[in-house]
Amino acid sequence: MSQPKAPPRIWRVLSDKRGDNAQVDIVAEALAQQRGWTSELRHLEMLPRYVHGKPRVGATLHHVDLSLSDPIEPPWPDLILTRGRRPANVALWIKKQSGGRTRIVLVGKPAGWFSHQMAKFDLIVTSAETLPAPFENVMQIDLPLMKISPERLESGRKNWQAAWADLPRPLVVFLIGGPTSPFVYNAELEERLRARIAQVLETGGTPYVVGSRRTPDGFLNRICAGFPDALRVFDWGQPESENPYTGLLALADRFIVTGDSISMQVEVARLGKPLEILPLPFGWLGTLDDARRRAAAWMFQPRRNTGLAESLRLAFARGLYHLRLMQQTRHFPRFHQILVDRGLASWMGDDKERPSTTRPALSATDEDVARILGRIDQLLSRV
Question: 51-87 burial by CB neighbour count: b if 16+ within 10 A, else e?
């Protein structure tokens, strides 16, 4: 009788970025639950200069503090799950040591945009806001693989439920990010936010404004100035305040999220809470930059059919990428439209009169993860 095939050796090569790690963990958990394949964590600590500094892209360990990291030594894994520039460099180094046998699944777009590095990853899983060149090893899914765990939600509920029990409802949360190309935070944006806050107050509800590390200094003060005490504010710039974010995710009735913050939009959408997206204005060069991103969004979209015209588009897109005439980028409006089209969000103000009813929570291990596992099966069949 033939012996049963041994399960593959799988490593999760990760650093200390919790949000990045959580997306890889979703794939690892699905592999364990649906395939019975467990994985081992290889946690990495960076040398001080690379905690925030960006190392060169390639197969290297020069940026890693090996004395503080988990051992990186044979036997080498069959499969690596990783995310981010720093861990991905280590994954490429491991693949080189294995003689190319180790397969790498990169969750998220590769750092840098040099095509010879993209080809070294066996599978690149990107969500709809990112636009890598459409090579065969690139797989696009709609939403990033991120979610708030039930344990964190329940902790937030317990910590804040009593404190907010008497707040007038609906409790409407404004999640504020920060400027990123091609968008700006300007007076126009301030006025739109102030108008929406005023609408919440007029209905007798409670607006709760939450900033982030990227929110410009003074922005929250300007949008909140002159409103009554019913308005609540949390400012990351005032660390003495307790962060209410997970409590708000658990207990709030509605969310308005600025268009730059993909992670906050996804976390709200997956919970099934009513979500309004606030599109952002462009800077003085933003219109040109947006045109470039729109062109990339069309050029770099995945294959739509098997026709000749589609094959020519893909070949042309890959050629532009190889010649470094078009680089990978992000196109936020495309992602926003996907959320709206799927009924996961609306544009700010479009449904403010509707009741704040919730949808069933959207699983983070649904059809997209099944597709990813199918591709991993194909990779490991060739090991």
Answer: eeeebebbbeeebbeeeebeebeeebbbbbbbbbbbb
- The contacts of residue 4 (CB under 8 Å, 6+ apart) are none
Other Cβ atoms less than 10 A from the Cβ of 202: the count is: 8
Q: Which two tokens stand for residue 193?
A: 């936010």
C-alpha 7 chain-centroid distance: 30
Cα 304 to its chain centre, rounded Å, is 24
Number of Cβ within 10 Å of residue 237's Cβ equals: 11
Report the alpha-carbon distance of residue 373 to residue 65 in Å, rounded. 32
- Res. 2: pLDDT tops 50: no
Give DSSP secondary structure letters for 215-251: SPTTHHHHHHTT--TT-EEE-TT-TTSPP-HHHHHHH
Instruction: Give me the mean pLDDT over the 98-125 stretch.
Output: 84
What are the backbone dihedrals phi and psi of residue 342, each rounded to the nearest 5 degrees, phi first?
A: -85, 0
Band of residue 123 on the pLDDT scale cut at 50, 70, 90 = very high
332-341 and 262-271 helices, crossing angle to 10°: 10
As a whole number of angstroms, the distance between CA 293 and CA 283 comes to 14
Q: Tokens at residue 237, please?
A: 């710039």
Q: Are strands 171-175 and 254-258 parallel, antiparallel or unpaired?
A: parallel
Residues β-bridged to residue 107: 125
Three-state DSSP state, 120 = coil
Tell me what pLDDT residue 190 has. Answer: 96
Burial label for 345, CB within 10 Å (0-12, 13-18, 19+), is buried
Query: What is the tens place of the pLDDT at every residue in 299-348?
Result: 888 888 899 999 999 999 888 888 888 887 888 988 999 999 989 999 99
pLDDT in tens, 202-233: 999 999 999 988 899 999 999 999 999 899 99
Tokens (6 digits) for 310 = 């589609």
Give the per-residue pLDDT at 346: 94
Closest by CA to 138, choosing from 158, 160, 117, 109, is 109
Q: Please, what are the domains in the chain?
A: 10-146+366-380 (3.40.50), 147-363 (3.40.50)
